[in-house]
Design a protein that fits this description.
The structure holds two protein chains of two kinds. Chain A contains 23 helices and 24 strands. Chain A is an alpha/beta fold. Chain A folds into four domains: about 200 residues, Pyruvate-ferredoxin oxidoreductase, PFOR, domain III (Pyruvate-ferredoxin Oxidoreductase, domain 3, 3-Layer(aba) Sandwich); about 180 residues, Thiamin diphosphate (ThDP)-binding fold, Pyr/PP domains (Rossmann fold); about 70 residues, no CATH class; about 130 residues, Rossmann fold, CATH 3.40.50. In chain A, strand 15, helix 14 and strand 16 form a beta-alpha-beta unit. In chain A, helix 10 runs parallel beside helix 12. The longest helix of chain A is centred in the first third of the chain and has 21 residues. Chain A is globular. By secondary structure, chain B is α/β, with parallel strands linked by helices. The longest helix of chain B is centred in the N-terminal third of the chain and has 16 residues. In chain B, helix 3 packs parallel to helix 5, helix 5 crosses helix 6 and helix 6 runs antiparallel to helix 9. Classes of the chains: A alpha/beta, B alpha/beta. Chains A and B meet through strand 9, helix 9, helix 10, helix 12 and strand 18 of A and strand 2, helix 3, helix 5, helix 11 and helix 12 of B. Strand 18 of chain A pairs parallel with strand 2 of chain B.
Amino acid sequence: MATGDLALGELQRATNTRERVINDFSINVATVNGSGSQSANSVLLKCIFGMGVPVSGKNLFPSNIAGLPTWYTIRASKDGYVARKRNAEVLIALNPETCRQDVLSLPTGGVAIHEESMNLQQYRDDVVCYPVPFDKITATLCPEPKLRKLVKNMVYVGVAAHLLSIDLSVVENGLRKQFAKKVKVFELNFGAVKAGYNYAAEKLTKQDPYVIERMNATKGKIIIDGNAACGMGAVFAGVTVVAWYPITPSTSVVEATTDLLKKFRVTPEGKATFAVVQAEDELAAIGMVLGAGWAGARSMTATSGPGISLMAEFAGLGYFAEIPGVIFDVQRSGPSTGMPTRTSQADILKVAFLSHGDTRHIVLLPGSVKECFEMGYQAFDLAERIQTPVFVLSDLDLGMNNWMSEQFSYPEGPLDRGKVLTAADLEKLGSFARYKDVDGDGIGWRTLPGTNHPKAGYFTRGTGHDEAAGYTERPEVYVAGMERLVRKFDNARKLVPGPVTVKDGTSKIGILAYGSSDFAIREALDQIASQYGQSVDYMRIRAYPFAHEIHDFVASHERVYVVEQDRDAQLSSLLKLDLPGDQVGKLRSILHYNGLPLDAQTVIEEFATKEGFRGISATHVEDVETREGAVAS
Amino acid sequence: MATAPAAPKVNHIGLPILEYRGGKSTLCAGCGHNAISERIIQAMWEMGVEPERVMKMSGIGCSSKSPAYFMTRSHSFNSVHGRMPSVSTGAILANHTMTTLGVSGDGDTASIGMGQFVHLLRRNLPMIYIIEDNGVYGLTKGQFSATADLGSTLKTGVVNDLPAIDTCALAIQLGATFVGRSFSGDKRQLLSMLKAAIAHKGTVMLDVISPCVTFNDHEGSTKSYKFMQDNDEPINEVDFVASFDEIEVDYESGEVYEVEMHDGSSLRLKKLQEDYDPTDKANAVRTLMEAHTNNEVLTGVFYINTQKPTFIDLLNLVDEPIGQLPDSVTRPPKSALEGLMASLQ
């Protein structure tokens, strides 16, 4: 239990003299799902962004539609740290069922804005409580009972805006943008914000140190979630056939894609130049993707772990018959149904070898929303260039949460449609053999159905085949084909996005990681440098097969920590299969797999323990774990 | 003195039937599937379909191997067990201008592939879906499939104690728009049905009883040549007149149910059983169910609907194959991205 020794009077005196905490704290909005708080949370997030302060938002929600506890955390960070923070300093408590736990999870000196009836002060004398009669304020504002719960959410935005010194004009602008064409909705919502703001101004005395001050760190930046960014990437790659089966947390990839296709891919006559099909299951979704890819359309699906399992058989067909297609896997906690609304990175090993037999796949690993966009379109070029299914591995944290980002740039150069023979090419060549390695890169030339030439057709099959796609079980022909696939895959090391060297040459110790772990690791490295004076090198992996630079990075360090969000050190295992034998022993693991996004503190603690640094007391760690349990339960 | 060989007979697009042939069959001698392949070759040739405008799709099993034995000039995709419908769906979405012919088997369709099969029917995907139906798994040496009739026996004497799935009744109920059953041994009926199938726009589901000479052609089997010869009850006599044919056949009025197809050809169904109306869904299903009770194997065209929109119509696709549109159409311009970026600030 994290209660402090300070009595309330002392606390007030202490906070009065305490230095203000500017643009460096987290807000935790505790509510129930289905209460419509999402748009209010998003408004609050965008207000901080509008104040020019770097911000990130995370939704910790249950696998449920209505009535279960949900937390939304907003982190403001002048230093630009956007990873999850273990404990929020400011609580907006709206869920009576969790309010006790919620207030207990606040650090000493924290803040609780809560419904008047809750009486949270009884649980903590070392935090500042601001009781607000949300229900009463809402009732007078909104006679329509159906709308009340939505309006109530905006009241807390107003209260928080006043207490945290967020300009009302910023809130107003944000709301205007959100409800662009709906004047009445805007008026109702802004009315609620003002009521909350005014209540706070009149009845509450600021006793806590947390404030937002204008900065200029968000100009020109955007806020977007990774799934929307993936969808956008696919659309700017010219995706044409989308087949999918709904599954959390990937559904919004397809929703975003579909919205954009409807916007940009309808002819003046109202005809569609795209097809989106909600398939009967994931087996059908991937089957449609491969059928469309075979027939020349850029095609994709989006799924999560259980869907990946179902796609396994087809993934092998795609690999062996050499058919392009893009599969977005937004990872969630498994095994089995696991925790569908919690994040994880535990699919990587499965995806890398997805299917039976000797199968290997190209896996792209975006580490930011910008990379979700970029890899979202690069995946299609790679799939058609290399003629194979390409997986884009995102996760729930990256995919469903709001991230601040540089603006996305339009892809340079034309689309790479890979090696496709036209009727004119066939006329010149006389004939072609689908799987013949004529260019020495392991990639054959293909034709598309509809190519108007008598020699265009070939027989695509998952059975053993020769260069001309004919059936064979001849040992040497099978081996030659399998070895060509290895050559092709090896060449892909140079074609996939290379790793990002964040820091190198400063240390004997290195860190390797991928995906959404990046944010926490960058923050942790700063802390490790300042707390322990230890510089650590860091390389972020962006694709499998691994580029040679990754081998070099391991070779040039004494020990390398592989940080990943799974139990079984899957990335580490994949690296061990790839590295020379004498390098394997250098790898150590920092693992995080409790369903919550990785935070810097976890990395710091694990690193410090393994490196033998002192300074983190056992009691501190215990406290933190207790609080964590409270938040996650 | 040598005489010049006679020029081979060509179809109306100038191709000899040789251009529709495939590789040598590796199926057992006498397998019904080979006869079906022959009829497909003949129908495609007679209809003058350009071989390279055809996509041959299949799953896994003896039947699914057969696309290798006809129309080598066509594009072909032998996919995974029971999943031909989804691969076909993707391919047709990418290029709906092709003629698509899927070959499946009773195991590939009615057991492992049931999930995808029923959804293909629901979508009225424009393709011909043929089940080469022999009631057993051939490649794994003769286990019953889900279309094996109740009470039929394996060579080993094992009796099937589960009811058969009637894929035709299912197809009619779930949305296919051309549904029929034939027998690999009935050349004339099968050829006419295949030609009409080529002319149809929408899902054509043909269940073709195709005896397995190795595992299911014995006494006690209901999918044997003998059983079919004794129990085949055509519900109508199928005659197809292509739009380019000039043959006129006179029927007495009321004797024939005539269906005009999209391409101007006509399907004529001569009534054999009392007044059978092939546009009446409920009656079609009832007739099939009654036939099971009477141990009859009804063949012929059970149901046809030339008006129902196909999946391509529902998706409102442009006329061109969407898989082959130029990049200028498929990739939105830079201004589109700039607009999106502005809205996210």
